[in-house]
Amino acid sequence: MPNVMIFRRFQRSISLSLAALAAAAASSSSSAAAAAAVVVVVVVVVVVVVVVVVVVVVVVVVMVVVVVLVVVVVVVVVVVVVVVVVVVVVVVVAKVRVAVVVVVIVVFKKKKKKKKKKKDKKKKKKRKNKNKNKENKNKKNKKKKKKQDKNKNKNNKNKKNKKNKKKKKKKKKKKKKKKKKKKKKKKKKNEKNNIFGQTLSTSSKKNPP
Question: Where does this protein have compositionally biased stretches of type Polar residues (predicted)?
Fold first, then answer.
């Protein structure tokens, strides 16, 4: 009986110790899980914060870029507008200056002409006479040239005719000479034949057949 009691005590102590171990394990596992949960929550929060910060930074950067682009576009537009305005102003000023100069020149010219008309009647007459003389001279020279050309043509024609006449005369002379030569030759031949005929006739008379 004492052995059974000891064994039961021992069994009870073992079961108590196991229960204590189980309780300790349970408590430790629950604390570990809690710690793990806390860590996970902390990590998630950190990640969310980081993501939010990154998103905010990206949005800010994009906004800055957009603002910079808008500023650049505005500056470019302003510069273009200024350049166009300057060009237009320069062109308008130049045109106005040219117009003013033209008007001034026209006005002055008109004034000068009017003055000339009033004052320089003598000069005008002189110029008129000069022009008339020039015209007459040109007319005279033209007439003279025409006459010279006519004479030149006449002389050339006469020269040509003379040359042709000379050529014709020469040809005629040559022909005549040739004819004469032919006639002479014929005459000579006839004379020769006559002499030969006479000798034949005399010989036949002397020695009849």
Answer: 195-209
